[in-house]
């Protein structure tokens, strides 16, 4: 659906997740919003990549900019 992000009702009830993981976009954005750095997030979620974090940020930016 979105580059690096999947939305599948069979995975985490359809919550947007980073591709090939069960890590919700909201979790990553929340950690960054609370001051965690990329390296801290990657340490906490070893199967996450920098590109996954960036995909989450792009997804969140589109979500708040969506005027439909």
Task: Describe how the helices and strands are arranged.
Elements: E1 5-6, E2 17-18, H1 25-33, H2 38-44, H3 50-65
Antiparallel strand pairs: 1-2
Helix pairs in contact: 1-3
Number of strands: 2
Mean pLDDT: 93
Number of domains: 1
| CATH topology (fold) name | Arc Repressor Mutant, subunit A
The biggest beta sheet, please? 2 strands, antiparallel
Kindly name the structural category.
Answer: mainly alpha
Query: What CATH first level would be assigned?
Result: Mainly Alpha
The proportion of strand residues reads 5-15%
Terminus-to-terminus distance: 17 Å
**CA-based gyration radius:** 12 Å
> Helix and strand succession?
EEHHH
Unreliable residue stretches: none
Adjacency order of strands in the biggest sheet: 1-2
Q: CATH-wise, what's the superfamily?
A: Winged helix-like DNA-binding domain superfamily/Winged helix DNA-binding domain
The total count of helices amounts to 3
Keywords:
globular; 68 residues; two-stranded antiparallel ribbon; 2 strands
Question: Quick gist of this model?
Answer:
The chain has 68 residues and is mostly helical. 47% of the residues lie in helices and 6% in strands. Helix 1 (25-33) crosses helix 3.
